Amino acid sequence: MAESKKRITVAYGDGIGPEIMQATLDILEAANAPLAYDVIEIGESVYKQGATSGIERSSWDTLRRNRVFLKAPITTPQGGGYKSLNVTIRKTLGLFANVRECKSYSPFVSSPYPGMDLVIIRENEEDLYAGIEHQQTPEVYQALKLLTRPGTEAIVRYAFEYAHAHSRRKVTCMTKDNIMKHTDGMFHKTFDRIAKEYPQIKADHQIIDIGAARVAAQPNTLDVVVTLNLYGDILSDIAAQVAGSVGLAGSANIGNDFAMFEAIHGSAPDIAGKEIANPSGLLNAAIQMLVHVGEPDVATRIKNAWLCTLEDGIHTPDIFRQGLSSTGAGTRSFTEAVIERLGKQPEQLKEASYQTSRSEGIVVQPSSTASMQKELVGVDVFIDWSRARRDPDVIGQRLVEASTEALRLKMITNRGVKVYPDGLPETYCTDHWRCRFTSQQDATSFADILALLQCIYDAEFDVIKTEHLYTFNGERGYSLGQGE
Ligand code: NAD
Question: Residue 195 belongs to what H/E stretch?
Answer without folding.
Answer: helix 183-195
